[in-house]
Amino acid sequence: MTAPTLFPVPASTLPPATPPSSAARAAGPVRLLLDGDDDHAVHRAAYQWADPACGRITVDPTPHTTSPAYLALDVLRAMGRDGFSRPDAERMSTDPAWRAVTCWTLATGVYEVIVLRAHRLTTERLRRLAAWHADTGIRLTLLAHAPERDDEQRLTEHLTAAGLDDVVTARGTVPVLDAIGPAAAGRRYGPPPHDHAYRLPTLPRSSVAAFRADCWRHQNTTDFARTDGQYRAGYAAARTWLARLQAQPPQAAVTTSTTEDPAEPTPFNLQETEALRLFLARLTVSSPSTQHTVARVRGAQAGFLAHALLLNVPDNLVSCAGPGITTVPLTPRVVHTITVRLPNPLRAAAIAALLFTGTDTSLLSMTQIASVDKDGTTAAIDRDSRINIGEPPGPRHLYAVPPRARPLLRAAVEFRRRTPRTADNHGLFANCFGTTPRFDALIADAGLPIPALANGHSGDDWHTAARCWHLHTPTPPAPDVLPRLGELHP
């Protein structure tokens, strides 16, 4: 193995810093910046350049230790995941910590890294950095302060032993500052602000036929406008979803069974039922309150009825569990709390799943690695095949993954797949919902209220208890088909 070539290179010839086009890409050369004067301006520039939200981080290794695990924790801290620093937080050993680093890098789009104090890194630490660089394709920059020729030679030997042969070097304060680049513009410090949603009043327990009229009778103009906005959103979402379903090509279209009497309502088959569950989960997963969920569902029922489809949901909807009832919207502040306090990808994804599914941990623990689709947009739990072995499969429990939770799910899946002796049919959240002390510690680490744990509902989630029928009758007019406010009279 040949030693890396060290020579002065103008900053303009160094590889440009461009965001990645994909999660994993080919690794380029490692940049080595030699600051022989140990100028404080270089340190300041490296810190000001970092912007984790845009995929650029600066890692400052903890002094007085040579542990590879500590370096991984330093990388996680640079990403903003520093929950392990609390005294009672979960500890990660070397291999899991570096797996977490790799998975968070791929899932969140970190593409450029500056590591300070590179002249103090041991060969083993450099090997870990080299493996991270090769696995993720990050643009890795090592900033060293080597005033003496012996220090520079020792660093060269360590780089060679670690397998970092492709190295491009810049030397001197001015070239190093040019190579680092300008400070990040508009960088935010601290957690995002709290989100605000307008509260809805208590809604009438009316069926879809009278729901909108009853709202108009009992609410003032402002409250009705807000309720009606949610109702219309559900109505429009149902019409759009049904139009896309009907537009599928014949070989991919969802088919229905037939009955002897054409006027007899036909229930949805297995494929249609699964698609319906996913639609209802997507419709309500972002609901800020139970009242918003009820208004959206009533609007969706009206949209289905306009297509000669009867959608029934549980009468006691507000006392059930599931999306929009026992869930918490994954706002920027909630996701920030999860990622800061839970650096382990499995633990972060487990808490996020509890928040956006609103289901019981006994069901969520059945989630397999292969249950999460490639893009992390849906999660399917096949409970019937796990409980009723040998019987025909029933419709799966499908949940929509909010956009902000998808990086967490992708990181967890990648973490599990990189764990030795793991297969796709293994549990994704293994060892997350186990013994009570371990689970209690996870909840304490998250520091977030989880309505699904306080609800105590042990039955099916409301969207899995919903049923739908084809009416096979002339399309009836939908109840209160979105008339103008002035046209609706009590």
Structural class: alpha/beta
| Unreliable residue stretches | 1-23, 251-259, 484-490
Question: Main beta sheet: strand number and arrangement?
Answer: 5 strands, parallel
Domain module tally: 3
Question: What is the CATH architecture assignment of the largest domain?
Answer: 3-Layer(aba) Sandwich
Tell me the CATH topology of the largest domain: Rossmann fold
User: Looking at the chains present, what oligomeric state does this protein adopt?
Assistant: single chain
Helix percent reads 40-55%
Rounded mean pLDDT is 85
> Strand tally, please?
10
Task: Please tally the helical runs, counting DSSP H or I stretches of 4 or more residues.
Answer: 18
Order of SSEs: EHEHHEHEHEHHHEHHEHHHEHEHHHHE
Q: Write down the Rg.
A: 28 Å
Measure the end-to-end span.
85 Å
Instruction: Specify the overall morphology.
Output: elongated
Strand content: 5-15%
